[in-house]
Amino acid sequence: INKYPVAVATWNFQNATKMAGAELARGATALDAVEKGVMVEEANLKNTTVGNGGAPDRDGNVTLDACIMSPDGNAGSVVYLKEIEHPVSVARKVMEETPHVMLAGEGALQFAIHQGFKRKNLLTEESEKSWKKWLEHKEYKPIINIENHDTIGMLCLDSKGDIAGACTTSGLSYKINGRVGDSPIIGAGLFLDNEVGGAVGTGMGEAIMKSVGSFLIVELMRQGKSPQEACEEAVMRTVRTAPNYKDFQVAYVALNKKGEIGSYCIHKGFSYAKFYEGESTDNPSKSYLD
Ligand code: SD4
């Protein structure tokens, strides 16, 4: 039996799933709910991996990546976007107001301003301090599960049974200027097909991009795998192909049209937030390594 609506998000972002869940409960579309849900984390200054307050690249630029997909298969994305607090909303404008899917950098910023978004300094005093501290050693070592990983990917299933998704991030802390991760790449950090379900990824974006993880999960579900089986297979692709898989995290959450949820990751420590049957919970994910 379908128990709509449902919202799931990477990590324990229950404020985001609560927001999306409240929207869904009052009849909002999956698309509106998913956008409002991830916006909670974009505005959260304590989250140093998403939106305002996100960690900068090694040169001190805060550059944001985000994408959104709607039940009709439409998609929008922005990459290397500076000075806009809600990149997911710009991605939605790209989807709805242009014939394109992805806008990058200066062009994306100009488009956002044209659409009425306001420029804002996103480098908080705190992230500037941490960045300056990092500059003393310039050691680039993504730390498993900790500050480098807090990207929000979210999937919503509304009361009509339609599915929408979004993913938004400031990427890996102290990345090389110009680096774009998996989060804004349709098929990598996010993919959905309203006939089947959707998937979102978080962790080392390079590994997710190389396996086109979210697309893979949706296609596996199409072939009959459960969300859990599909997430496990996608993580195992990375485990089998990347000799250094123990050095980074990759995590996926998937949701099918029945409202079934699955999740899998390389390292223990990942959990996902869920709004289900009116309740919001944190759910530890199964992992390949203990
Ligand atoms: C990236 N996947 O840019 C993102 C990072 C991430 O939690 O998930 N952080 O590679």
UniProtKB/TrEMBL annotation:
InterPro entries: Ntn_hydrolases_N (IPR029055), Peptidase_T2 (IPR000246). The record marks 150-151 as: Cleavage. One of its GO terms (molecular function) is hydrolase activity, acting on carbon-nitrogen (but not peptide) bonds, in linear amides. SUPFAM superfamilies: N-terminal nucleophile aminohydrolases (Ntn hydrolases). Pfam families: Asparaginase_2. The active site is at residue 151. GO terms for cellular component: cytoplasm. Substrate binds at residues 179-182, 202-205. PANTHER family: L-ASPARAGINASE, N(4)-(BETA-N-ACETYLGLUCOSAMINYL)-L-ASPARAGINASE. This is N4-(Beta-N-acetylglucosaminyl)-L-asparaginase. It comes from Christiangramia echinicola.
